[in-house]
Structure formats: structure tokens, C-alpha cells
Amino acid sequence: MAETIFSKIIRGEIPCHKVYEDAQVLSFLDVFPLSRGHTLVIPKQEVATVDQLSDESAAALGRALPRICRAVLKVSGARAYNILQNNGAGAHQAVFHVHFHIIPKHENGEGLGIVWKPGKLDSAAGAAMAAEIAKAM
Description:
This protein has three helices and five strands, in the order αβββαββα. It is α+β, with helices and mostly antiparallel strands. The protein has a five-stranded antiparallel β-sheet with strand order 1-2-3-5-4, with helices on one face. The longest helix is centred in the middle third of the chain and has 22 residues, at 55-76. The two termini are 24 Å apart. 20% of the residues are buried.
């Protein structure tokens, strides 16, 4: 994997406004926030997408993420938030190191805006797809 800005932050070569750190996870404020309290949560394992994470790194993220969310909500005063995580350039990933955005949604509208264009799942196609995914696991 190519080195990213997050690699340098993990090594302490670039400063950050750290909010949490343990042996496997680092969390800090986003320097280009969408709202007050916008926080990033990254694994120290340097991989580009979630499917590349080790089980240990994934579990560490799963333990840390809810605790960081609670703290962000408490301090930011927001009552709602989004967790955004993109995988690959086609999915709008800009830094190719796994990272989760915790983006408080404030009552003034500050936060993440989303346009959602749902389709409809065909029952037979859905059953076939679910079976294929389950088999691949």
C-alpha cells in the first residue's frame, strides 16, 4: 500500500488533534470538517479498504467507534450524526487508508448532506445474491 497522510499522522510526523488512541486505533479531528466535532477514526493497520482489515483491527475499530461517537455527541451538543466510510475511488474514497468519519448533524443543518436514490430489490434476484454472498463467506 502506498503511504498516506494517515501513515505520517500515526508515526507522529504530522500533528493532529488527537481524541483517542490505543495500540490499534487512532482518532483525531478532521482538518476539513463538515461540522463542529467532525472526527476521524482510523486503524493503525495500513490498508486501503475495510475488506483488507485483519479481524483484530476490525474488532478494535468496533470497540472504539461507539465510545468515540458518544464523546463527540456529548461535546459537540449534536443529537444526531452520520458515520461515513468509503472504500475505493469509485466510492469517493480520497485517502486510501481505512477511515471512518463521525460527522455530527447539528440543528442548524451543519453536517453531512446525502442524496439517496433507492431502487427495488427483486425477490428472486435478492435470494440468489444473498445465497452467493453467504457461500463466499
